[in-house]
């Protein structure tokens, strides 16, 4: 009977995530995957979380297992506000809403800000998950190229003058997919232009606490809180399976998000919110993040050293100072989507870069993840990719 059903245009037009489909491929034994954005599961603090869960159930069981506020558990929101203040973001708990992962935060941005045909401005490349979330609201994308300092500003003013733009979407710090970071002076210029035209900036920030060296630029939310909606998450800092993240929006604006979320799911997992709050006490979360930084920094170094040693000279790649990803660019004419089939045959996988270009392009690029594979896998996986690259370049 289902073939007779009438589906919404949204359901008919939505496509499966390239990342999710690639992850299915990588389940076969022996595959070394640089494809997902998975944290290192060996770092999950399972013992400490079990202890925190027992305490929550013993001391707060009736409340932790009950319906909660749409805005989220107040002590957790207060904790997030305090942590944000360390980065120069001065907000109250009333400006924070807990979401079911950052992906729900992105979806809420689409629900609140986008109608059919509205323009989303982003970098190219940009985060595939955001493209997928916004696509449900049928926007038009206008993208600006990236250099070593992230999205360029040249042309932004002209785009805003000639398009009905509803948001500028950015991952300004250790961007997914390329690991680039927008410096403060460029952030300020973007915010100046956005404010002139009254267009909100969506600052997607899963990675700024995962820095390896140097200093992290001030968040865009700290530079101009009135024009920025900020997204953060515990997925990369603690454990993605808990699906706890947050959205910070200016007073008045946050109420619209709360009302939209009420219609979506009433509220986010109450127990998981209590659990994270309990775990974070007495500096445990900060100590855990320090361990994450140390391991990811080491694995990034192993990957870069292997790429320097094995990759052909024609292959370029970024050298991020934090986060989970780096970006590889091959000479024009090498198609990484086509090459992926050959890579999987050689038991190594990645995400083709074209998936991160909402307007098309990026056929000769790819995203690599260094947080999940161990050091031995990174070394061997880069060797396998280097062999494929050399074969492809020889055929050109």
Q: Indicate the CATH architecture of the largest domain.
A: 3-Layer(aba) Sandwich
Total of helices? 14
Q: Shape, please?
A: globular
Please state the oligomeric state of the protein chains shown.
single chain
N-C termini distance: 51 Å
Poorly predicted ranges (pLDDT <50, ≥5 residues)?
none
Do you know the CATH topology of the largest domain? Aspartate Aminotransferase, domain 2
Residue-averaged pLDDT: 95
What portion of residues is helical?
40-55%
Q: What is the N-to-C succession of helices and strands?
A: HHEHHEHEHEEHEHEHEEHHHEEHEEEH
- Which value, in Å, is the CA radius of gyration? 21 Å
User: For this structure, what is the CATH class of the largest domain?
Assistant: Alpha Beta
Structural class: alpha/beta
User: Strand count, sense and closure of the main sheet?
Assistant: 8 strands, mixed
**Count of individual domains:** 2
**CATH superfamily descriptor of the largest domain:** Type I PLP-dependent aspartate aminotransferase-like (Major domain)
Strand order of the largest sheet: 2-9-8-7-6-3-4-5
- Share of residues in strands: 5-15%
The overall strand count is: 14
Give the helix/strand layout.
Layout: H1 9-13, H2 18-25, E1 32-33, H3 46-64, H4 74-85, E2 96-99, H5 101-113, E3 119-124, H6 128-135, E4 140-147, E5 150-151, H7 156-162, E6 165-170, H8 184-197, E7 201-204, H9 220-223, E8 228-233, E9 245-248, H10 253-265, H11 270-280, H12 284-310, E10 316-317, E11 325-329, H13 336-345, E12 348-349, E13 351-352, E14 365-369, H14 375-395
Parallel strand pairs: 1-12, 3-4, 3-6, 6-7, 7-8
Antiparallel strand pairs: 2-9, 4-5, 8-9, 10-11, 11-14, 13-14
Helix pairs in contact: 3-11, 5-6, 5-10, 7-8, 12-14
